[in-house]
Amino acid sequence: MTMKIRMSGKIFTQAFLLLWLLLCLFPMYWLLSFSLKDTDEIFRGNLIGLPQQWLFSNYTNAWGSGGKISMFMMNSVIVTAVTLLITSFLGFMSAYGLLRMRWKGQKVVFTYILMGMMIPMHAALYPLTVTMMPLMKTHLALIIPYAAFNIPITVLILSGFISNIPYEMEEAACIDGSGIYRTAFTIILPMMVPALITAAIFVFLQVWNELLLASVFTTDKVRTLTVGIQQMSGQYQTDYGSMGAALVIATLPTLILYISMSSQVQKSLIAGAIKG
């Protein structure tokens, strides 16, 4: 009787996991099939089924002169990469200085930085618009606010990891003649690679998918991918197949990043859960 109950529970668990897997994969299947159809087929009601005619030309139209997705993607790559470099560097230096050094007003500054997480980026739209007006035609109009609003979450993630690193490692380095900067960058930083990758993924998702600031702060030549896809929707006519292809192109970097970095994220979560 006990064996039957265990077998039934195992079968139920496997069936549930299989169903969950199908639910997770269905949006990707739908988007891929959607991107290979033309507008007429989509509006005839074939939303879920496979395309009657596989239109790979939708991808060339979206990437090339039709949708200019190649230019928009390059802008997104530049903005995201520079933002990641700034937030990772300043976040690491801030977290290390706040948790490993003792100075007056340390807790107040740490609280002040974390309060930045409570302010939505879009709540500061008007003052940011006035401040960033001279930079509207450059990538800096997005890089500066993106970096400023994502430093607090980076500091929070890295500080939780740094607090679990034993002080004895830094004390041993100091005894051997290592200075503050050498200790931070040659001893602490290599140990924090999983935490840095975790913070980078959070920042990447925030910056890569952001739309409102990108649509307000940029002009045609520096518009990002989200704005470019939005502009593919015409006032009188829209090529939904090419738009679906653009959405697939925009989704691929996120999937590749997660697949390649998922093991590092798991290491960071495990390390952050271990005390001492």
Kindly describe this structure:
By secondary structure, the chain is mostly helical. The protein is built from 13 helices and no strands. The longest helix is centred in the N-terminal third of the chain and has 34 residues, at 2-35. The mean pLDDT is 83.
Task: Please give the number of β-strands.
Answer: 0
Order of SSEs: HHHHHHHHHHHHH
How is the main sheet built?
none
Question: Can you tell me the CATH superfamily?
Answer: MetI-like
Helix content: over 70%
DSSP helical segment count: 13
Write a concise synopsis of the structure shown.
This protein has 13 helices and no strands. The chain has about 280 residues and is mainly α. Helix 3 crosses helix 13 (about 240-275), helix 4 (about 70-100) runs parallel beside helix 7 and helix 10 packs antiparallel against helix 13.
Question: Mind sketching the topology for me?
Answer:
Layout: H1 2-35, H2 39-43, H3 57-63, H4 69-100, H5 106-114, H6 125-131, H7 140-162, H8 167-175, H9 180-191, H10 193-208, H11 212-217, H12 225-231, H13 240-273
Helix pairs in contact: 1-13, 3-13, 4-7, 4-10, 4-12, 7-10, 8-9, 10-13
